[in-house]
Structures are given as C-alpha cells and as structure tokens.
Predict the 3D structure of the following.
Amino acid sequence: MSCVFCRLVAGEIPTTRVYEDAEVLAFRDISPQAPTHVLIVPKRHLDSLHELDDPALAGALLSAAAHVARLEKLEQGWRLIANSRAHAGQEVPHLHLHVLGGRPLGRMLPSAK
Ligand code: AMP
C-alpha cells in the first residue's frame, strides 16, 4: 500500500486521531497552519474530491468536519478547504478536507463589495 493516508487509516503510520467512524478518519495535520488543523479523509481511497460521486460519503465527510469543529471548540469560526488536483496544489493524492481554526484566518475570496 503506497498511499500515505491509506497507510495512516490502516494504522501503519502513527497519527493523532481526533475522530473516527465507519466511513471517515480525522487526524491532526503533521504541519499545522493554524492552532487547529485537522484533516478528514474517507477510509476508502479516492484520489481527490473530483472523484467523489457518493452522496452518503459526501455527507459523512461534511458532518465529520462540523463534528470536529465542535470537538475542537471552534465557536469563533473555522474554514474547510479541499485542494483538488494539480492546479489547487494537492500534495497527497487521497481525498482530504482541511479543518482550520483557532485564529483569524483572513479572507480567501475577494469581497463582493
Ligand atoms: P494538500 O496540499 O491539500 O494535499 O495537503 C496535504 C496535507 O497533508 C499537508 O497539510 C501535510 O502537512 C499533510 N500531511 C502529509 N503527511 C501527513 C501525515 N503523515 N500525517 C498528517 N498530515 C500529513
């Protein structure tokens, strides 16, 4: 098994697990970009969000993100990011959502004003 996140799901690589259910695993990013930086992955391998065609799994991933934000007490706000494929700079080719919070994150998109 060569995929690093598959190996992490299988317990072959150590990580700090934050949340887990039958479909998804949430664990702390090894190089955190904010006080809270948690990755959420499906347990079955999909290369990126581009390949996701399963509404139940999509719901499980999104629900896990909100659950993690509550566990991490991110009441002041948080951001969900999915880098998908090369132009987004995806580094690990296993679908993952980044949950970032614990500090002001700035605006990512131009204001509509
Ligand atoms: P992306 O650029 O969206 O593909 O993000 C990949 C993320 O995976 C980066 O934030 C890395 O720091 C993180 N990462 C890579 N290897 C590990 C690992 N073994 N455990 C936790 N996070 C990892």
Notes: The helical segments are 4-9, 55-71. The two ends are 49 Å apart (CA to CA). Residues 4, 8, 13, 15, 29-31, 39, 83, 89-92 surround adenosine monophosphate (CB under 6 Å). The mean pLDDT is 96.
